[in-house]
Amino acid sequence: xxxxxxxxxxxPSSELRARYDELVREIQRHDHLYHALDQPEISDxxxxxxxxxxLKIEAAxxxxxxxxxxxxxxxxxxxxxxxxxxxxxxxxxxxxxYSVEDIDEFDARVRKQLGSDAPEVIEYFCEPKFDGLAMExxxxxxxxxxxxxRGDGAVGEDVTANIRTIRxxxxxxxxxxxxxxxxxxxxxxxxxxxxxxxEQQEADGEATFANPxxxxxxxxxxxxxxxxxxxxxxxxxxxxxxxxxxxxxxQAEFEKQCLAWGLPGVGVSDESTEGAxxxxxxxxxxxxxxxxxGPSSKFLQRLRLARTARGPAEARAYYEFIxxxxxxxxxxxxxxxxxxxxxxxxxxxxxxxRSPRWATAAKFPPQQAETxxxxxxxxxxxxxxxxxxxxxxxxxxxGVTVSHATLHNQDEIDRKDLRVGDRVIIQRAGDVIPExxxxxxxxxxxxxxxxxxxxxCPSCGNSVERPEGxxxxxxxxPLCPAIVKESIxxxxxxxxxxxxxxxxxxxxxxxxxxxxxxxxxLYFLKLEQVLNLERQGEKSAQKLIDAIDRSRDSDLARVIxxxxxxxxxxxxxxxxxxxxxxxxxxLAATSEQLSAIPDVGEKVAQSLIQALQGDxxxxxxxxxxxxxxxxxxxxxxxxxxxxxxxxxxxxxxxxEPRDQIKALIESEGGLVQGSVSKKTxxxxxxxxxxxxxxxxxxxxxxxxxxxxxxxLLSERKA
Length: 718
Ligand code: IVH
Fold this sequence. Notes:
Blueprint lengths: L1 H35 L7 H17 L23 E3 L9 E2 L3 H14 L8 E8 L2 E8 L2 E7 L5 E3 L2 H4 L16 E9 L2 H13 L8 H9 L4 H5 L4 E11 L6 H10 L7 E2 L6 H12 L9 H6 L3 E5 H15 L7 E8 L2 H7 L1 E2 L2 E2 L2 E5 L4 E13 L5 E12 L2 E7 L3 H7 L6 E7 L3 E7 L24 E2 L8 E2 L5 H12 L11 H9 L14 H5 L6 H13 L5 H7 L7 H11 L2 H5 L3 H5 L6 H12 L1 H12 L20 E5 L6 H10 L3 E3 L8 E4 L5 H9 L2 E3 L1 H12 L1
Bound molecules: 2-(butylsulfanyl)adenosine (IVH).
């Protein structure tokens, strides 16, 4: 009987199993096309459909879930603790040096050690020293089975679940990869992603990070991989661990092979003596990452920042060159690493103590300055969080004048023992965000008193709460004018209701004049009321009323995001709108329903339940409805499919924000790519289009301007 049962089960179930394996392969292929090659073949929507199908199968057959399943990218149940795992080969550190002359000394040491074996000119492999968190990836039979932190060098922590969420890290290598392939690299955040993450943290009322390295390390240390999944982490590979079944002659060969297998890196240049000019051109070309979809791994790889150098003079030139472009790089570095290129020579040189004799880290002098801490101001955010801000005697650091720096929270100030009047060392981290590193004169007599965050809100005078174990102190008065103003600023912001022309000053005036006391009041505002405000002309007042009116044509996702519920960012808001469909359903959501939504974790669900049980959200949504705001979910595509299957690339300055144009194209079934290739159908080129235009012309790809694009839409409408 049991055999007939299994025979019956094996038919459809084995078909489903085959479909499951096919989906894993297909999604892996699309990941590679998107992240490594920057050549997507399907739209985001169709990709999501594949993932949805995969998740459904996995939910029904949890025992089928494969280690290399793309589902692992979204994060899973939190761990109790990280498991400690020994490295097969210890993860060592590098000898540091702080000046360019040290490169000559390094070369002399290497020559001396090699003795008569030393070649006339030693070839070095030079690359940036990334400022992030060291990580080991272990691929067994081509599958990413483990990711370990450095730990104490001998034993690291198993953070596999977090690393699997990094889209550019392949879960599987091509078939020709050796059976055991361990690689090491640095987990980082790009400067732009870091800025956005901190903005989001601030919007969520969470503590901000001091610099990209802290943010990357903090994300990897999360036991809940869904948090890591929400952070735009990246990785650059720069060293081998244990490799079995394949040999490499040099570091250059190793890194090129890694790139070819889809592992992320900054690319290897073939020229050893390329000048800054050539690089600047390449950087310009790649700068387009900033105005497009954000830099894909391929863009970063095209920077080709690593290269070989023949002898110490070329290595020194590399150091000077990288230092000169340091500011314009999209990620933080703190020096360059010079390695003997030949692996055989590396073996010959071996190790001393905990560092290899064949490599040196030549660090850049830090971009620091000394100034006076004039005052510690306290700002109240949208969620009531009190953030201390350093008001500094303006000082120049790395080419910019710095007069403010966030101090994050009380703990941070205590740790650094910062007091008003102190001379302090400041530094720019993550490109623009200045930070106070330490007190310059901690032993001085007559320093001011220790700083304490106020026990009462500086805006409304209500008492402040700081829950056990939390770093952030909050004002909990929902009527606090600072909270009201910040909530409205968030509500009108571009990614929320996008009310143009309603700037901070105007919001403050409207609240101070008691014309509005909550976001929904905007939809009951009359032209005459705005006109009564100081410095409001007829024209600008009418413009504001029109902008408010336009924002009525919104959708549920934007409204949910605009409400500013703690931990509900844009992505979560979209998922909620998708899951509930309309505001009635959303307002009545139960915790079971919420927890069933893929990217709603426990913390988010709790915050939502709390918000939905209170009056504020319920009342606001009702009043928005009365005020004529559209609360329905927007359809994925308009269904007209006017641009179905057409592959676009967008470049130059256009009259509408790029993400709106992208959304428009996608809603019509088109696809927006990051870079021009043979597969591109149309280049939409605005003012000052640069290299993408040149490339399109070279490939004979159709180029349209804004007007043509508009007519394209109406043409296809017919
Ligand atoms: S090679 C045997 N290459 O620097 C050591 N390390 O001080 C092999 N690092 O823990 C390391 N960029 O986290 C190497 N291009 C690079 C690097 C790099 C950053 C870090 C790494 C390591 C530390 C050593």
